[in-house]
Amino acid sequence: MPTRRRRVVRVLIGVVVGVLVLGGGLAVGAWTLTRPTDTVGEVTFANPLAVPPLAPSRLDDRGRRVFDLVAQQGRRDFGGDGRMTATAGFGGDFLGPTLRAKRGEQVRVNVVNMLGEETNVHWHGMHLPARMDGGPHQMVRPGATWSPTWQVDQPAATLWYHPHPHGATEDQVYRGLAGMFLLDDDREAALPLPRTYGVDDVPVIVQDRSFSGSGQFDKTRNAFAGIGVLGDTLLVNGTVGPYLDVRTERVRLRLLNASTARTYDFGLSDDRPFALVGTDGGLLARTTRLTRVRLSPGERAEIVVDVRPGERPTLRSTPPDLGIGGLSRRSAGGADRFDVLQLRAADTLAPAPPVPDELVPTDRLDPGAAATTRRLEFRGRGINGQSMRMDRIDFAATRDSTEVWEVTNADGTPHNFHVHDVQFQLLSVDGAPPPPELGGWKDTIFLPPHRPMRIVLRFTDHSDPNLPYMYHCHLLWHEDSGMMGQFVVVDPGQAPGRPPAHADHGDHD
Ligand code: C2O
Ligand code: CU
Ligand code: CU
């Protein structure tokens, strides 16, 4: 071989080896940097679980149940070491009170913005008119009050509320703006389920956070995942390392994943089965006995756990099945484990009736009656190739019609799907019937990559051609980055209008 050619070959080999070494090095680096978080056995459970207070309410002269919610800044010492974290909350430093109303009641919430920046409050899971929904079109200026009012007309359920300003939802929720909204009805009240708030019926709002050296919330994103912020410390109702004193044989936990990006797989430390009685939109038709329930951001599960005198089982999150492998699984939190909450059973427990097998009769929506089938593909930072725009209505659904939506995650990383106004039913997961825990009313579902989820939805009661509802990925960084769309509900024969050029800023009744 002539020397020149030999030199070229040698250089080429050098380049190839270099690339391999560099690539290998990067892979090793990425693998190390995405080392799974594991707090199992590390949490001391030194703090009693905070239970959000029930929000006081009053009846006004029109018989409406009125609540006040003040969004404000705060400071809190989460670690008990004197380092104050800058936070935000409703009527307090972090999170907000639990709102509670009964089916049939007219509610009104005075949302007072003392946050020092624009915000709003969305009633996640609530069936209500679009202008009361608290989406990005209902912004509340600093110092202003917004007072949405609507009639609660849906089954008993564990809903929640949080800000929804376009582009700033992750930030405001991360700082602490969120709370539960419980709905009651006669059917639920007739069942022998634990229901003494804060005693045997307990909100469990799970959020992951990281803290900087100075004790501030650290929102550094995992460079390899692109799913948003994954923290290494869990807060339950804002409590680090919490325990709950249990004085009854059975305790109902209302699990809410209020994290911005993390998906959990909740179960008990000894793998005992628990009774899953409800999901996002209310009670299931039948109790399902499980050892794990996976919740992606925004999802809820009501579980009833049996305890024996004196024992201390731990609510734990084990690696969730995210439908992906290797580095993407690790960097999306798919290998992480957390101790969440210790249950401390008293030495004598008040008796509690067994959880019934049959809960509430549930009508199945008929996909055969669907007026339309829509396909929504989640990819990159958009849906169907488009990024969210405040002035674009993506489609119109007709009031009193049924639709089938086929929602697909076309990426190799996790997304989930949430829609406003309605609770839907899952028809199939990649062509197969859904597992029982996904068989009830849902408003948020995890989207494993490349497995189409078919859902059926029915739009009733409220229509407005101009003001849209949102559908989006509830990984809040994705939502903020444009993975969101807008639909309106129109009357039969009505054409969709245009969203107002500027958000409505409240200040009126
Ligand atoms: Cu929980 Cu559109 O949000
Ligand atoms: Cu919502
Ligand atoms: Cu997403």
Tags for this model:
Immunoglobulin-like; seven-stranded mixed sheet; binds CU-O-CU linkage; 509 residues; six-stranded mixed sheet; 33 strands; binds copper (II) ion; mainly beta
Question: Helix and strand layout, with pairings?
Answer:
Blueprint: H1 3-33, E1 47-48, E2 58-59, E3 65-76, E4 85-90, E5 99-102, E6 106-114, E7 122-124, E8 145-146, E9 149-151, E10 157-162, H2 169-175, E11 179-184, H3 186-189, E12 201-209, E13 233-236, E14 239-240, E15 242-248, E16 250-257, E17 264-268, E18 274-279, E19 282-290, E20 293-295, E21 300-306, E22 314-317, H4 326-331, E23 338-350, E24 372-379, E25 382-383, E26 395-398, E27 401-409, E28 415-419, E29 425-429, E30 444-447, E31 453-459, E32 464-472, H5 476-480, E33 484-490
